[in-house]
Amino acid sequence: MLVFALPFSLKHMSDTLTARYWTACAVARSAGQLAYRYFQNLESITVESKGIQNPVTVADREVENLIISRLSHCFPTDQFLAEESGGERCDDQVWVIDPIDGTSNFVRGIPYFCVSIAYVVNQEIKIGVIYDPSRDELFAAFYGKGATRNDQPMEVTHCQELSSAMIGLDIGLRTSMELGLKAVQQLVLQQSVIRHLGSAALALAHVADGRLDSYWNPHLNPWDVLAGQLLVQEAGGWTSDFLAQDGINKGNSILACAPALRPALQQATEIQGSAT
């Protein structure tokens, strides 16, 4: 039997969402610590490929196994959708997990990766937790209750103009080259500072924490986005609606930003629709 000691008792939590929130925070931190131990010994890890520019390692699998086993131990009837092990079609209540978002950075020794855990109920993201083990930063959001970094409240920036904005973006192989180049050209012409970061989840956490003014990616999977989307929303930011058009099963685009930047960024990226 799996023995997993939480730093609190679930027995006295009548609110099951609250119990899941605190459990997700504890599990994300443990999972991130495991990922970081692998990161410190990269020479011992074999890197496999799931496709072009899509690496996977034993670290991804072991971290994912840890997350699922510990959440299952606490909530035996819960369902899971995870990057490495997949899951069934999700329409009701589900944990959405990326064990290491930013694996390409991870395998090259670049400390820009994270653990991402979200809990979705009836197409609403209720819990979002991201842990950055390289900086020991835990980003957490509870629907309607705000967002924190290491228990301190977070807020998006008040950036008003693209000429003052720092924008994170990642453009993958599933993106129209024409759309990607057009958007980047418009942002550069507006004198925005652009950063290609390689971890959507961590970049979204940094939008929520005011380190970035925006993040854009034309197509991602749900495990890359959902925790970070809730962080941005609960920190006062605006996001497009990733879950629209069956995004939890098919993937979608994501745009997240300080509210004042929304019109200009929607025009540049051609992303419409709002989740907030």
TrEMBL record:
Domain of life of the source: Bacteria
Swiss-Prot/TrEMBL GO biological process terms: inositol metabolic process; signal transduction
Enzyme Commission number, as recorded: 3.1.3.25
Pfam families for the chain: Inositol_P (PF00459)
GO molecular function, one term: inositol monophosphate 1-phosphatase activity
Annotated SUPFAM superfamilies: Carbohydrate phosphatase
Cofactor(s) in the UniProt record: Mg(2+)
Catalytic activity reported: a myo-inositol phosphate + H2O = myo-inositol + phosphate
Alphabetically ordered keywords of this record: Hydrolase, Magnesium, Metal-binding
Binding-site residues, Mg(2+): 83, 98, 100-101, 224
Matches recorded under PROSITE patterns: IMP_1 (PS00629)
UniProt-listed Gene3D superfamilies: 3.40.190.80, Fructose-1,6-Bisphosphatase, subunit A, domain 1
Sequence similarity: Belongs to the inositol monophosphatase superfamily.
UniProt-recorded name of the protein: Inositol-1-monophosphatase
Species whose genome carries this gene: Acaryochloris thomasi RCC1774
